[in-house]
Amino acid sequence: MRRALVLACLVALAAPGAAFAHASIRGEWPAYRQRLDYSPRKVILHFDQSVEVLPSAIRVLDANGRNLAGPTRAITRGLEAGIPILPRGPYTVRWKALSTDGHVVNGVYTFGVRVRAPTVTDAVGAQGPTTTEHVVRWLYFLGLALLVGGLGFDLLVQRVSDRRRFWFVVGAGAVVTLEVGITAFLLRAEDALQLPFTAFLYGDLSPIAGGTRFGEAFIAMELGFALVTALVFLAWLTERRELLWAAFVLGLGLGSGLSLSGHSSATVPESVADWLHLSAATLWIGGLVQLALVARTADAFRRFSRLAMTCVAVLILAGTYLSIERFPALHDLWTTHYGHILLVKLALVSVALCWGALHQLLGRSVHGSLWAESAVAMAVLLVAAVLVDSKPPVEQLPITSTHARSLSP
User: Fold this and answer.
1) Can you tell me the distance from the alpha carbon of 239 to that of 261, in angstroms, rounded to the nearest whole number?
2) Residue 125, domain member (yes or no)
3) Structural domain harbouring 272
4) In total, how many domains does the chain have?
5) 3-class secondary structure for 355-403?
6) How far apart are CA 135 and CA 130, in angstroms?
7) Residues 316, 339: one domain?
8) Are 100 and 196 in contact (CB under 8 A)?
9) Is the pTM of this model over 0.70?
10) What is the CATH number of the domain that holds 328?
11) How large is the C-alpha radius of gyration of the chain?
């Protein structure tokens, strides 16, 4: 009787998974980010099960947001919609279908006709980074500073005597980095799909996770920081310094994922400079928090000052190089949105540097002043979060008659 009951429970647990799994897309035509040399006459979606047609199940949007798709009809385990002859340009396909389990699944992807297709995060309808995403990225930068910067302070400056506070700050940084990283990915995916959160749960995230630099970097960094967290946890259990060193080096290297997933037009030298810029800021700001919250001694201040000066030098050099590379003309600094954000960041950095210079002149740290300097540094991170999600100005080339003909459809 007991064996029969156990078997019945196992069947009950397994059956819903097979009977009520929502539909997943298995292929599409045209394919995601495919560049075609001719206009396709239809859009075809294939699923792993039969789906039902909903109104406007397939929409093919041009750059102006006009839907060019005809009525959608059901085919064997899929959907199909006819389209007219498409002129040269990028196109966005937004689709939805009703699964046999009653859930509406959604998705979006892009393709191009005689042009390169944009990433799905630049699809028609996507708004780009929102204010919420800026705040979330700031929290991510802050978590990174608490984690990697905190480890750097303990390893490069001096061993923190108050181990309880040290582990609390570093552990909080690890949790924030992991959880906020997931939130940032979901927000970017929600914006690309243009769906409320309840419907977004059944969206197809594969074009974002595997088809964009942002998605690929997210997966690598989440797995990497999970390993960093595990190393920190083992170091907490065993107090073995070599585990902290491994976590620190790995965490510092993983910061490059933010640079590699940033502006798609960034060159390799720009990505390296971006990583150096972020690493220096992480060590500087994370060390400031440790100094203000955990290691509040004159000796710790003197030791940290040497590291801080190195970090500031790297910040200035890398930031200067990036500014030269990303501003085609000097006037872009005060005539573009990107330039305005950078000026705010430079002003905040200058305030933080003046605070640090004051501490050097006094020859000691002032606890309340350290908190103020840390607050300014965190404001720098917030501006940096907005700057990372903003597009640098592009060089305006003079349009010749030949160039004009090449831009025409």
Assistant:
1) 34
2) no
3) 131-388
4) 2
5) HHHHHHHHCCCCHHHHHHHHHHHHHHHHHHHHHHCCCCCCCCCCCCHHH
6) 9
7) yes
8) no
9) yes
10) 1.20.1630
11) 26
